[in-house]
Amino acid sequence: MRMSLLQLALGSILAFSPVLALGQGIQTGGGPPMPSVDSVTPKRGPVEGGTTVTILGDYFPQSARVSFGGVEAQQVVVVNPGRITAVTPPHHAGRVAVAVGGGVRGWAFTYEKERKE
User: Which domain does 39 fall in, by range?
Assistant: First the structure.
């Protein structure tokens, strides 16, 4: 019996992932759940950084690292597995993703240049 390339690939995936085979999602048991970021407040601050933000989500480990647009945050405090406070680092103007471990919230924070009046 000849198998198509698709049948071979699908068989390999199912053989190595019993969770997928059972239709239970992609989280394979054994490791801790991946952090997820639900919200960031406030949603904007100056390019110089220094804004204290609250990040809400799930599964934040005590050793969580937080980044804004790929730049590591300062003074990260994991209040509990669903809440973190952190101070934004300096960054150029624009919208950035906020990441906690493997959890990312795209365009969750906007760095703004100071407006001259």
Answer: 33-112
